[in-house]
Amino acid sequence: MRKGANLAVPAATVRVVMGWQGGAGVPDADCSALLLAGGKVRGDHDFVFYNQPDHPSGAVRHEGKQQANGGVTDTVSVTLSSVEPAVERVVLVASSDGGPFGRVPGLHIRVLDGGSGTEIARFDSTDATTETAFVLGELYRRDGGWKFRAVGQGFDNGLRGLATNFGVSIDDDPPPPPRAPAPSPAPSPAPSPAQSPPAAPPARGGGFVPGPGQPPAVFDTSGLEEVAPHTWRDGNGDVMQVVPIDLVPDLPAPLHDLAGLRRGLALTYARGGGALVECDPIELDGVPAVRQIIKIKFPNQPTGLVFTGVLLAPKATGAVILKAQCPEYGTTGMREAMTMARVGPQAFFVPSPFAPDVDLQGMGGLPSNVADRPEYDAQFPQHPLTRLRLLLARMQATARVGDPFRNLPPFPGPQ
């Protein structure tokens, strides 16, 4: 299945199997489920995971992990006929421990008939980069039955952040030594649309304090559709997010070491099957940050790419990310083919500007080419890479960073 596709689920009971390839240096991962009514859990009992494996209704159960032939699976079973009438969706979540999903090869989800074991659906998530949690898919009611949708929406703040977005109250660890206070997420119920981040906060460079339920940074969301907490979509179907992270950022070098930062990120994305297109130091409302553009193969398609933009402001104890994703649908490869026809094959492919001495394609990465350069955007105004650069420019220009985050200690580099 491709991202966003859906199909009917004819079985009364299904086993949802999340799988990936294990190995040295590969982060561990876990599967969990959220039972939603009105887009939120009704209480913490609607969160089924390894520490709370059984839903009180008996409809959803976390079965646990298995390993075989280098692969790892984690399984959740769902008895659809026993799901309470108030529950509209069962959201199927993956979370990583020890690194982002860009370092987890072969991540996929399968929906199996609980009786026969027949595969009903499979979705491969191949565009992961910095995410540490994913909504891989969802089971949802439709016309008296159930359907499965491949979602593939990533989050950079882990299972805790994703679950909190859906209304789960997660107890904090014992408090660390005092530091600059940060606002806590609002408990259920969710804020109404009127409480969404303001389109244009009144001040830049200080003086902005996020309200209850707001992330530590906002940007101009006027004209966008809010499709999930802190997540918006525009008329092209491109998605934008604000993602707070309460962990030390996983960057290969401090921001002032631009060469080391670029090289380390280029190697990381190549190992995950993608490529670093751009990486530049910026300021996000006066806060030091790094702007990245990454491309990766479109899942379940022989051609096509997904372009992801990241505006990452790291601090010593956390980070905030403004993120945009622009997938390539329909006819693919036109920008590359037309550019190659103009410049010729020898001039089209170029070494990575960030790690020219390394065979990144040999590591599984995508090739670098001149068609990705900004000077070709005007010739291809509807291409996803062109759209992504415009979205990042909008997000950077209108970003407001809250004072509690702004005042945190600066990012010292990898520890």
TrEMBL record:
Pfam families attached to this UniProt entry: TerD (PF02342)
Record-annotated TerD domain positions: 2-166
Compositional bias (Pro residues): 175-201
Region feature Disordered, mapped onto this chain: 166-221
Family from the record: Belongs to the CAPAB/TerDEXZ family.
Protein name, UniProt field: TerD domain-containing protein
